[in-house]
Amino acid sequence: MELTKLREGIDIIDQNILRMLNERAELAEKIGIEKKKQNLPITNENREQQVIQKLIKLNNGPLSDEAIERIFNEIIFCCRTLQKDIS
Q1: Measuring CA to CA, which of 42, 63, 73, 80 is 20 to 30 A from 34?
Q2: CA distance 41 to 37
Q3: Which residues contact 43 (CB under 8 A, 6 or more apart)?
Q4: How far is CA 73 from the centre of its chain?
Q5: How many CB atoms lie within 10 A of CB 4?
Q6: How far is CA 73 from CA 5, 8, 13, 39, 64, in A?
Q7: pTM, entire model
Q8: Could you tell me which residues come within 8 angstroms of residue 28 by beta carbon, excluding any fewer than 6 positions away?
Q9: pLDDT for 26-80, tens place per residue?
Q10: Positive or negative CA dihedral for 21, 24, 26, 28?
Q11: 62: cis peptide before it, omega within 30°?
């Protein structure tokens, strides 16, 4: 496959990742609203670890489990920040 076509494939995947990240963020904001209504803390380390461990179990590579953990820690951090900003 030529380089241009491979890069076009990456561009399409990146657009899908961006769309899905924003969908995830919207759900995280809704969760933040519910947490606020119920007077629950924003951070739930047990839940965050469950999410990451589940994804690591699903991971078939070529990304390492460590890479998956780093990526999703960052995603969770960004979504948690959105929840903290809810007034």
Answers
A1: 73
A2: 11
A3: 80
A4: 8
A5: 8
A6: 31, 28, 21, 24, 14
A7: 0.88
A8: 79, 80, 82, 83
A9: 999 999 999 999 999 999 999 999 999 999 999 999 999 999 999 999 999 999 9
A10: negative
A11: yes
